[in-house]
Amino acid sequence: MSKKTVAVDFDGVLNLYSGWQGEDELFQPRENVQQFLALLAADYHVVIHSTRDPVRIRRWLDEHCLSGYVADVTSVKPPALAYVDDRAVPFTGDYGDVLVQLSTFKTHWEQP
Predict the structure, then answer these.
(1) Cα separation of 72 and 45, whole Å?
(2) Using one digit for the tens of pLDDT, what is the confidence trace for 82-105?
(3) Distance between CA atoms of 44 and 41, rounded to whole angstroms?
Protein backbone atom coordinates (compact mmCIF):
# COMPACT_ATOMS: atom_id res chain seq x y z
CA MET A 1 0.00 0.00 0.00
CA SER A 2 1.53 3.33 -1.04
CA LYS A 3 1.57 6.36 1.21
CA LYS A 4 -0.76 9.27 0.55
CA THR A 5 0.82 12.57 -0.38
CA VAL A 6 0.87 15.59 1.92
CA ALA A 7 1.96 18.81 0.20
CA VAL A 8 3.89 21.24 2.38
CA ASP A 9 4.48 24.87 1.42
CA PHE A 10 8.08 26.03 1.73
CA ASP A 11 8.02 29.70 2.79
CA GLY A 12 6.53 30.32 6.20
CA VAL A 13 6.07 26.62 6.98
CA LEU A 14 9.58 25.17 6.78
CA ASN A 15 11.53 28.39 7.14
CA LEU A 16 11.39 31.61 9.15
CA TYR A 17 9.95 33.58 6.23
CA SER A 18 9.04 37.13 7.18
CA GLY A 19 8.17 38.57 3.78
CA TRP A 20 9.78 38.53 0.35
CA GLN A 21 13.44 39.58 0.43
CA GLY A 22 14.50 38.29 -2.97
CA GLU A 23 15.08 34.89 -4.52
CA ASP A 24 18.44 34.43 -2.78
CA GLU A 25 17.01 34.78 0.76
CA LEU A 26 15.65 31.39 1.78
CA PHE A 27 15.73 32.11 5.53
CA GLN A 28 16.69 29.75 8.34
CA PRO A 29 14.66 26.61 9.16
CA ARG A 30 11.86 26.90 11.70
CA GLU A 31 12.45 25.31 15.09
CA ASN A 32 11.49 21.61 15.17
CA VAL A 33 11.14 21.38 11.38
CA GLN A 34 13.33 18.26 11.24
CA GLN A 35 11.16 16.45 13.79
CA PHE A 36 8.00 17.57 11.98
CA LEU A 37 9.22 16.30 8.61
CA ALA A 38 10.47 13.03 10.12
CA LEU A 39 7.08 12.32 11.71
CA LEU A 40 5.25 13.35 8.54
CA ALA A 41 7.48 11.23 6.30
CA ALA A 42 6.91 8.16 8.46
CA ASP A 43 3.27 8.07 7.32
CA TYR A 44 3.08 10.22 4.19
CA HIS A 45 4.78 10.93 0.90
CA VAL A 46 6.02 14.51 1.54
CA VAL A 47 6.11 16.93 -1.38
CA ILE A 48 7.37 20.48 -0.89
CA HIS A 49 5.74 23.07 -3.13
CA SER A 50 6.69 26.68 -3.72
CA THR A 51 6.74 29.38 -6.36
CA ARG A 52 10.50 29.42 -5.79
CA ASP A 53 12.98 27.49 -7.94
CA PRO A 54 12.83 23.82 -6.82
CA VAL A 55 16.60 23.46 -7.31
CA ARG A 56 17.28 26.20 -4.75
CA ILE A 57 14.88 24.57 -2.30
CA ARG A 58 16.51 21.15 -2.75
CA ARG A 59 19.88 22.77 -2.01
CA TRP A 60 18.42 24.42 1.13
CA LEU A 61 16.96 21.07 2.25
CA ASP A 62 20.37 19.42 1.75
CA GLU A 63 22.19 22.19 3.64
CA HIS A 64 19.87 21.74 6.62
CA CYS A 65 19.84 17.90 6.56
CA LEU A 66 16.14 17.76 5.66
CA SER A 67 16.16 16.25 2.17
CA GLY A 68 15.88 12.67 3.43
CA TYR A 69 12.30 13.30 4.53
CA VAL A 70 11.13 14.81 1.27
CA ALA A 71 10.01 12.78 -1.73
CA ASP A 72 9.80 15.68 -4.17
CA VAL A 73 10.06 19.46 -4.55
CA THR A 74 7.90 21.19 -7.13
CA SER A 75 6.70 24.61 -8.27
CA VAL A 76 3.26 23.10 -8.91
CA LYS A 77 0.81 22.29 -6.12
CA PRO A 78 0.41 18.50 -6.51
CA PRO A 79 -2.69 16.40 -5.87
CA ALA A 80 -2.58 15.55 -2.17
CA LEU A 81 -4.52 14.32 0.83
CA ALA A 82 -3.92 17.71 2.47
CA TYR A 83 -1.94 20.92 2.09
CA VAL A 84 0.10 22.46 4.90
CA ASP A 85 0.33 26.15 4.05
CA ASP A 86 0.68 29.38 6.02
CA ARG A 87 -1.61 31.18 3.57
CA ALA A 88 -4.52 28.75 3.56
CA VAL A 89 -8.14 29.61 4.32
CA PRO A 90 -10.08 26.42 4.98
CA PHE A 91 -13.41 25.99 3.20
CA THR A 92 -15.97 24.64 5.66
CA GLY A 93 -18.98 24.83 3.34
CA ASP A 94 -19.84 28.45 4.19
CA TYR A 95 -18.87 31.04 1.57
CA GLY A 96 -19.73 33.87 3.95
CA ASP A 97 -17.24 32.50 6.46
CA VAL A 98 -14.55 32.39 3.76
CA LEU A 99 -15.20 36.04 2.89
CA VAL A 100 -14.92 37.07 6.55
CA GLN A 101 -11.70 35.06 6.97
CA LEU A 102 -10.23 36.66 3.84
CA SER A 103 -11.09 40.20 4.98
CA THR A 104 -9.11 39.73 8.21
CA PHE A 105 -6.48 37.24 7.01
CA LYS A 106 -2.93 37.47 8.34
CA THR A 107 -0.24 34.80 8.18
CA HIS A 108 1.21 33.58 11.47
CA TRP A 109 4.32 35.70 10.88
CA GLU A 110 2.26 38.88 10.29
CA GLN A 111 0.31 38.61 13.54
CA PRO A 112 1.31 40.57 16.64
Answers:
(1) 9
(2) 999 999 998 999 999 999 999 999
(3) 5
Rounded mean pLDDT, 50-58: 96
Q: Collect all residues with Cβ–Cβ distance below 8 Å to 30 and sequence separation of at least 6.
A: 13, 14, 15, 16
Laid out side by side, the sheet with 72-74 consists of: 72-74, 45-49, 5-9, 82-84
Q: Taking the CA of residue 100 as centre, how many other CA atoms within 13 Å lie in the half-sphere pointing to its CB?
A: 5
CA nearest 48: which of 88, 2, 84, 89?
84
Residue 86 to residue 33: CA distance in whole angstroms: 14
Nearest alpha-carbon partner for 52 in 19, 90, 9:
9
pTM reported for the whole predicted model: 0.90
CB 75 within 8 A of CB 99: no
